Each structure stands twice: as structure tokens, then as C-alpha cells.
Amino acid sequence: MNLDDMRRQAQGIAAPMGAAPEMPVFASFVAMMRQSEREERRKLTFYTVIMTAVGITLLATAHTQRSTGILLIAVTYAVVAGLSLWKVRQLKQVDYTKPTGTFLSEARTRYRFWGWKETLAAVPGLTLLAVGGGLVVQRMAEKYFGPSGQTAALWGFAAFFLLTVVLGMFFSWRDWKRSKGTVLAEIDRLERELMNG
């Protein structure tokens, strides 16, 4: 959802009391953000359910096949589901009545594309996924191609994994730029107006 969509959906939504009575534009913008973040919570809740279901399925498969690789992938899905649920709770706790400067600063953190929290989550998650996937590929390559095919299979998996990560980051950034980049630009504008009085 871009800023124009948010503006249309925000029509008729009352701005929260106490947010910034001296800034009608800001109050309207806060109303837009509330609508956008409400939708974000719904999406994350659905995403959490899907990740949990996939994680449980993988755990059952890992137990049946006694596969360490599948177990690591299942743990990754469980961690992602937990992080998504945590983000939902964080969004529910947003205080829209904070002073203007504080609210904009916190909103900037919420709407940025990448930060240290994302790095802390992504690095171990991708590591678990890479190791788990590598173990699964190694096991399958040994079963179907013999020891001689393991090296080629692992190199192929590594190339595929890196390409997936790069493409995932690119499309995530493009989606962020379309849906949240405009909001961040609006936050910048409001902060400049606040500083200039």
C-alpha cells in the first residue's frame, strides 16, 4: 500500500487525540499510519500461522526421517514465526499519542527497510537454513548419485541459495520502496517541518 492508497483509506478516520493538535496534516498522517499498521498486523498474523504450520510439518518429517537438516530448517521456520508474532505485538503497542518528535523518531525505525534488529534475525536464520539445506542436499546426493556427486550437488545448492537470498532482498526492497518508502519520505518531510518550526 502506497501513501496515496493510505490517504484514500484514511478518509473518515479520526486522528488520535493528543497526537499533534497544532499540526492537522500530521494528525491526518497518523490516522493513515494507524490504518496501514492495522493491515500490517493482519498480514503478519497470517504469515505467522503459515510459518508455524510449515515448521510443525517439517518437525514431524525430521522425526520420521531422522534428518538433522530438515530439523534445522524446521527450527528456522519456528524462529521466523516467533519473530513475526513479536512484531505483531510491537505494532499493537504503538502509542500514537506521543509527542510529535518522539512519535516520528519511532515511526522512522518501524518503517526503515533494514536495521540492526533485522541483521540479528537474518544472519542466524539464513545460517541455519543454509546448513540445514546443505545437509539435506548432501544426504540426497549420496543416496542418488553416490559420494562422487556430493560435491557438485553442494556447489549447486550454494549457488542456488545465494541467488535466492539476493533476489529475495531485491524484491523485498522493491516492495518496501513501493509500500513503505513513500511513508518514510513523508516522515522525513514532517520532521523537517517540525525542526523548521
Descriptive overview:
This protein is mainly alpha-helical. It has one domain (about 5-10, about 20-195). The protein has helices at about 5-10, 25-65, 70-90, 100-110, 115-145, 150-195. Helix 1 packs across helix 2 (about 25-65) and helix 2 runs antiparallel to helix 3 (about 70-90). The longest helix is centred in the last third of the chain and has 47 residues, at about 150-195. The chain is elongated and about 70 Å long. The relative contact order is 0.11. The model is unreliable at about 5-20 (pLDDT under 50).
Topology as a string of helices (H) and strands (E):
HHHHHH
Q: Tell me the strand percentage band.
A: under 5%
**Radius of gyration, Cα only, in angstroms?**
22 Å
Helix content: over 70%
Counting helices, strands and paired strands, the structural category is: mainly alpha
Average pLDDT works out at 82
Structure, briefly:
This protein is an all-alpha fold and 197 residues long.
Keywords summarizing the entry:
mainly alpha, single chain
List the helices and strands and how they pair.
Elements: H1 3-9, H2 24-65, H3 68-92, H4 100-111, H5 116-145, H6 150-196
